[in-house]
Design a protein that fits this description.
Length: 148
């Protein structure tokens, strides 16, 4: 696992380096930890508020702690009609968290998504961007047990 200090050091002198660094950090950590934001502020000569502002400007970057596996339940109409709400409830019950939260062991974060273009096999869940098709509530424990 690449350390955020090394990532920032590697991007420090590049144009747009802070965005590149944030991308790389998020790839490693699944979010941008507060210490990394502080380090980026120093390296890119910004205030901490500015470094935070850059990270929160882009919706694909997250400054909120997220787990190793990001589970996203598609909530667009075709998945909704096919029972996405029931699947979501089963996920919340199995993981013991609500949408937007991360399990205490930092393994899973539960989020919602828009249509992921797989409406032929609704409802669709993605786990770290890998789609799982035709998910039924009773399948949830089996699916998630496969993620270590
Ligand atoms: S609506 Fe869920 S994949 Fe299209």
């Amino acid at each position: 696992m690449a350390n955020y200090m090394d990532i920032i050091a590697g991007c420090k002198d590049k144009p747009g380096g802070i965005i590149e660094a944030y991308h790389a950090i998020q790839k490693e950590y699944n979010y941008i930890p507060e210490e990394a934001l502080k380090e980026a502020a120093k390296a890119f000569k910004l205030s901490e508020a500015q470094a935070f502002g850059v990270a929160t400007f882009y919706s694909y970057l997250s400054v909120k702690k997220r787990g190793k596996y990001i589970i996203r339940m598609c909530e667009s109409a075709p998945c909704h009609v096919a029972g996405a709400d029931e699947v979501l409830k089963a996920m919340e019950a199995y993981l013991g968290i609500k949408v937007g939260e991360t399990t205490p062991d930092n393994k899973f974060t539960l989020e919602l998504s828009e249509c992921v273009g797989q409406c032929q096999a609704t409802p669709v869940v993605t786990i770290n961007s890998e789609p799982v098709f035709n998910v039924k509530p009773e399948m949830v424990p089996g699916i998630l047990a496969g993620y270590k």
